[in-house]
Write a structure and sequence with these properties.
single chain; 291 residues; alpha+beta; Four Helix Bundle (Hemerythrin (Met), subunit A); Nonspecific Lipid-transfer Protein, Chain A; 2 domains; 5-stranded mixed β-sheet; 11% strand; globular
Length: 291
Amino acid sequence: MAAPAQGLIDHPDHDLGGAVLQSWDAFIALVDGADLSRRTRLDGWTVREVVLHLGTWDGTSSLDTALATRGTDAARTPLDPDEANAALITAHRDASDEDVVAALRASRDAVADVLRDTIGSSGGRDVVASQLGPLPLLTLVHAGCYELAVHALDVADALDTTVDPVLLNHGIAALTDSTGCLAAREGIDAAIGINAESSPWSFTAHADGSWTTQEIVGKAHGPRVTGSAEDILEASAGRADPVRLVTLRHLKIKHVGGLLALTPIIDQVPGLPGGRGLKAAAKSLGGLFHH
């Protein structure tokens, strides 16, 4: 019996490994040589702290923490990264800029090792812990493209520069695939488009726990969010108010009832980025479109 479909792990034409490493390389290029002391829009965080928490220190990264739960009951327990991030930042506050970027490169190399060992093998489907709860290993590694894209927007805002579109486009693909995974995990039957202008993707989740993720070719149909990759990422991560973006028509919502089928994810995934804001937005948008 064939294993259930797991989104972009199974997409025959998507170079998941290439996308992940391109995102890491683009993020490293953004911060290498930059002024890491600049304050970001994240409360109390400088660029240094954003970069530092993504690094590998003393041979350990957040990915190692997830890998340690592979094949164990601990994979079912959501990780809480806040305490670990705070300890990491405190421990390495005096590291040089060069050391901070070197730690980032070490994380990139560790991800490359995992990709090399798991792509095309059943090991990529092994369940590991994450802040979003249990995820297939390769889905988690790919979700890193979303985190890198959002933090690139944080950093670019602080440095008054722009984000490489590669980061934004891979971030949208990762957001779509991860959301499809979460919907399937919650037993939700739904087909949703995250129709970014430069990177249109959709997922179809099934109650049996399977999901597929594909690029939108031609005209989009069904429930979907349309807008720039940047606005969609900002809204999904709680960096911008989704209701305001809809009011300004920066984001357009089609068939909002279908999108509201995803609200159980917000309730069931405590670590969902921007979850509180998205829940408020779902209520507001539901009222907006039903009156």
